TrEMBL record:
<feature type="region of interest" description="Disordered">
    <location>
        <begin position="348"/>
        <end position="374"/>
    </location>
</feature>
<keyword id="KW-0393">Immunoglobulin domain</keyword>
<feature type="compositionally biased region" description="Polar residues">
    <location>
        <begin position="364"/>
        <end position="373"/>
    </location>
</feature>
<dbReference type="InterPro" id="IPR007110">
    <property type="entry name" value="Ig-like_dom"/>
</dbReference>
<feature type="domain" description="Ig-like">
    <location>
        <begin position="175"/>
        <end position="294"/>
    </location>
</feature>
<dbReference type="InterPro" id="IPR036179">
    <property type="entry name" value="Ig-like_dom_sf"/>
</dbReference>
<dbReference type="Pfam" id="PF07654">
    <property type="entry name" value="C1-set"/>
</dbReference>
<feature type="signal peptide">
    <location>
        <begin position="1"/>
        <end position="16"/>
    </location>
</feature>
<keyword id="KW-0812">Transmembrane</keyword>
<keyword id="KW-1133">Transmembrane helix</keyword>
<dbReference type="Pfam" id="PF07686">
    <property type="entry name" value="V-set"/>
</dbReference>
<dbReference type="InterPro" id="IPR008056">
    <property type="entry name" value="Tapasin"/>
</dbReference>
<protein>
    <submittedName>
        <fullName>Tapasin-related protein-like isoform X2</fullName>
    </submittedName>
</protein>
<feature type="domain" description="Ig-like">
    <location>
        <begin position="302"/>
        <end position="404"/>
    </location>
</feature>
<dbReference type="InterPro" id="IPR013106">
    <property type="entry name" value="Ig_V-set"/>
</dbReference>
<dbReference type="InterPro" id="IPR003599">
    <property type="entry name" value="Ig_sub"/>
</dbReference>
<dbReference type="GO" id="GO:0016020">
    <property type="term" value="C:membrane"/>
</dbReference>
Length: 441
């Protein structure tokens, strides 16, 4: 899938701040696709203008310049002008601040046909999908074109060349947001054994009380898809009725929050590695149905330990030291080694001399790995600090385990000296005896 990184800028209208996004209209292109054996998509540059998206209280007056449509309307321009009459888009101000934070915005528009509608009937519908790179908010908007029932003037309106839809006097395609499915946390990390709330919600213009709201959550992972929850809920005078299907223990969504607050969030309890994946929240209400994606990443930091508690060189033999990383997720882990002798100012990297074991996968999906190092006494005098440094996604900072090379045990030294002395005494006495015998002869 292509994603187009777009540039976002903003202008401030008198009633509120306008947000202007560069988008692509995605259209299924005929012709060329046939040869390739699949549908080809055309991307047509377009603009999405949110009028008065957020109030401009506190904004500096010099900045208050409303969005200016082109001076002469052009049939080739594709400007979707959005009015938000009754829908409050949650966290919409994030779009306004994205510019200041230099966040990129991905914006794509495509044609949409509501349930039961004719393909070319009016009003026309579009899906606008807007995502802030790096998280924040993700929106799937259903846009419905606005048309004047009675033509006030005799002149025919300008028709947009690509869509063949009438443009407003200022050359924009006037639309209103009639349905939106959003996530304020489109990507989330959670540890094994923990619980998580996957954020998803919807808003609808003119929702009919008592109307069914259908919510479906699916997980998609490594090419496999599975429905894990399905709710059909409706508000009656006394309570909220629901038909519920759940295919994972510890999974829930609240039917009353769904119909009363438009809250479609999913709770997953006691997470396992296999819960990781792309979750698709699909909300259907009345003639509209659309979806939002939430990524769940499972993480588990490694437990890190050295194979030895102490390191003493008794003789000139090298010694082996291992650094074990236990039960972490995901797979990528980095192990580095350093040594710093008392005489050295900076630690020296030993990573090149180390060797890695292969990854071991446990039945719960976590991994373990060890890194081995051979240390020589000449290079590592007593007092040398050996560090194993591990970095992993689930560790907030680099994690160090260290060990200091000890002096050989003084007791051992004492007995070694005694032994050496004893040997010397025996040897010398032999020599003297030999010498004495020689003298006698
Ligand atoms: C409908 O009419 C009003 C008033 O003349 C005008 O301001 C508006 O742009 C028109 N809308 C469209 C979609 O042409
Ligand atoms: C849904 O409800 C939960 C629990 O009250 C809350 O934490 C979450 O922010 C709500 N999400 C939406 C989209 O309203």
């Amino acid at each position: 899938m292509f994603t187009i990184l777009v540039f976002l800028w903003m202008v401030y209208g008198l009633e509120g701040a306008d947000v202007v996004l560069s988008c692509s209209l995605i259209e299924e292109g005929g012709g060329m696709g046939g040869m390739m054996g699949g549908a080809m998509f055309k991307r047509i540059p377009s603009t999405l203008v949110f009028k008065d998206l957020v109030g401009n209280d506190g904004l500096s007056p010099e900045l208050v310049t409303p969005y200016n449509p082109p001076e002469t309307p052009n049939a080739d321009d594709l400007i979707f002008e959005l009015t938000l009459p009754s829908i409050q888009i949650p966290n919409a101000d994030l779009l306004l601040h994205a510019d200041c934070n230099e966040q990129e915005v991905v914006c794509e528009i495509s044609r949409y046909v509501p349930r039961g509608a004719e393909l070319d009937s009016l009003p026309a519908h579009f899906i606008g999908s807007v995502q802030l790179e790096g998280g924040g908010i993700s929106l799937t908007l259903v846009l419905q074109t606005l048309h004047n029932e009675t033509t006030q003037s005799d002149t025919q309106p300008l028709m947009q060349s690509n869509l063949n839809l009438p443009l407003s006097q200022s050359g924009t395609l006037l639309t209103e947001v009639v349905f939106v499915v959003f996530s304020r946390v489109p990507s989330i990390m959670a540890p094994i054994g923990g619980d998580v709330l996957l954020d998803c919600g919807f808003r609808q213009k003119n929702s009919i009380p008592g109307q069914d709201v259908a919510l479906e959550w699916r997980i998609q992972h490594r090419g496999n898809g599975r429905k894990i929850l399905d709710i059909k809920a409706r508000e009656t005078e006394t309570d909220v009725g629901q038909d519920l299907f759940v295919d994972r223990e510890g999974t829930s969504a609240e039917a009353d929050l769904l119909v009363r607050d438009g809250n479609a969030s999913l709770t997953l309890k006691r997470l396992k590695v296999i819960d990781e994946g792309t979750y698709i929240c699909t909300v259907g209400s009345g003639e509209f149905q659309t979806q939002q994606i939430v990524q769940l990443h499972i993480t588990q930091p490694p437990r890190i330990a050295l194979s030895e508690e102490k390191l003493v060189f008794q003789d000139s033999k090298p010694q082996k030291l291992s650094c074990h990383c236990h039960r972490y997720y995901p797979l990528d882990v980095q192990v580095e080694w350093f040594s710093q002798a008392p005489s050295e100012e900076e630690p020296v990297s030993l990573s090149e001399e180390s060797s890695l074991s292969s990854h071991q996968q446990h039945s719960d999906g976590t991994f373990s790995l060890s890194s081995h190092l051979t240390l020589r006494p000449d290079k590592n005098p007593p007092g040398t600090v050996i560090t194993c440094r591990v970095s992993h996604l689930a560790l907030e900072t680099l994690s160090d385990v260290t060990l200091t090379v000890d002096k050989p045990d003084p007791n051992t030294v004492f007995w070694t000296v005694v032994l050496m002395l004893a040997i010397s005494v025996v040897f010398l006495s032999q020599v003297f005896r030999g010498a004495g015998a020689g003298a006698e002869n």
